[in-house]
């Protein structure tokens, strides 16, 4: 019975609801204007649909975090894509990133480890250790009776 309670407690503590750090649903901190502009540039570099690139630029213009991009160049690239001037938009997108920002290497989003994940890791390790300890005690008790 104790083992069942321990398993239930461990699962309850490791639930995704407790690990959530308050990020509103649908909001992704990686979707900055810089990241979305880079995605649009990559779409055009690969020769994919300019409509997909236009969607990325729409999202970039609506993004809350507009740091690291030249908004005038971003709007100009958006207008060029709306007028289906793909080459012009491609050139303008290269100018969206200020000098000194390496946009060709790419932008990598690395989420930070949250408190909920650390707590879940510690609780999980404790539950495994308690389970191993309980099994060792049970095995010793069975051997003593035999």
Question: Layout of SSEs?
Answer:
Blueprint: H1 2-13, H2 16-19, H3 33-45, H4 50-62, H5 71-82, H6 86-94, H7 115-145
Helix pairs in contact: 1-7, 3-4, 3-6, 4-5, 5-6
Q: Can you give keywords for this protein?
A:
146 residues; rod-shaped; 7 helices; mainly alpha
Describe the overall structure.
Helix 3 (33-45) crosses helix 6 and helix 4 runs antiparallel to helix 5. This protein is mostly helical. It contains seven helices and no strands. It has helices at 2-13, 16-19, 33-45, 50-62, 71-82, 86-94, 115-145. The model has no long low-confidence stretch (mean pLDDT 77). The chain has a domain at 29-100. 64% of the residues lie in helices and 0% in strands.
Counted beta strands: 0
| Overall helicity | 55-70%
Low-confidence stretches: none
Order of helices and strands: HHHHHHH
| Beta strand % | under 5%
Q: How far apart, in Å, are the first and last alpha carbons?
A: 24 Å
Q: Looking at the structure, what is the overall shape?
A: rod-shaped
Number of helices: 7
Main sheet makeup: none
Secondary structure category: mainly alpha
Based on CA atoms alone, the radius of gyration comes out at 26 Å
Oligomer: single chain
Q: How would you concisely characterize the structure shown here?
A:
The protein has 7 helices and no strands. The chain is mainly α and 146 residues long. The protein starts with a helix and ends with a helix.
């Amino acid at each position: 019975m104790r083992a069942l309670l321990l398993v239930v407690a461990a699962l309850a503590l490791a639930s995704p609801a407790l690990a959530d750090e308050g990020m509103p649903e649908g909001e992704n901190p990686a979707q900055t204007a810089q990241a979305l502009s880079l995605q649009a540039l990559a779409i055009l570099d690969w020769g994919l649909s300019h409509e997909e690139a236009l969607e990325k630029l729409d999202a970039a213009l609506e993004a809350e975090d507009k740091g690291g991009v030249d908004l005038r160049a971003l709007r100009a690239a958006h207008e060029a894509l709306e007028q289906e001037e793909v080459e012009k938009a491609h050139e303008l997108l290269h100018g969206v990133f200020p000098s000194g920002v390496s946009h060709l290497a790419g932008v990598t989003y690395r989420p930070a480890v949250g408190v909920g994940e650390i707590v879940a890791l510690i609780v999980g390790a404790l539950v495994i250790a308690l389970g191993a300890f309980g099994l060792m005690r049970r095995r010793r008790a069975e051997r003593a009776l035999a």
